[in-house]
Design a protein that fits this description.
This protein is an all-alpha fold. The chain is built from 9 helices and no strands.
Length: 165
């Protein structure tokens, strides 16, 4: 049975080690999906709470961080859907999150594309997963992921404009 506490003499997966090794990276990754540091932190915290509750089962998985990332993305998508029904998203300002002008432009563009396209772009281009791995994490088919990636790139290109040579 996996250990929730400190790692034993044989090493292996333990909750504390997974949390310490993955939390900051996952928050950074979810920030790309959510475009909000607070939302990213909350989604990752919720995902780790779910991991804790299921540790006896999930703690034996080979890719625990991928499981937590998928849960955090699902949490973020669920919150995004509820928020979209309840209120418009607040505007991002450079001062509010200490970003450069181009960062804000990218975040605003990301908010305008569908969440599945945004998630696929993030997993493929930021995390570096293959199309097949993205499909696995998003519980989808590789053809669907390719479509989301293609449409997402076209949408972002249209929103951000092509770089001038």
């Amino acid at each position: 049975m996996p250990n929730r506490g400190e790692a034993g003499p044989g090493g292996g997966n333990d909750f504390d080690a997974v949390y310490r090794a993955s939390y900051a990276r996952l928050v950074g990754q979810l920030y790309v999906v959510t475009t909000s540091r607070t939302e990213a932190e909350e989604a990752v915290q919720e995902a780790f709470a779910r991991l804790w509750a299921r540790w006896d089962h999930v703690g034996g998985y080979e890719k625990i961080e991928a499981w937590v990332r998928r849960v955090a993305i699902n949490v973020a998508i669920g919150r995004w859907r509820r928020a979209a029904r309840e209120r418009p998203l607040p505007e991002v300002t450079a001062a509010a999150v200490d970003l450069t002008g181009s960062d804000v432009e990218v975040l605003l563009a990301l908010r305008k594309i569908p969440i599945h396209q945004r998630s696929a772009l993030f997993l493929h281009h930021v995390v570096g997963l293959s199309v097949e791995e993205v499909a696995d994490e998003m519980s989808s088919k590789p053809g669907t992921v390719k479509s989301w990636l293609s449409r997402g790139r076209v949408s972002l290109d249209g929103l951000l404009g092509s770089p001038q040579d």
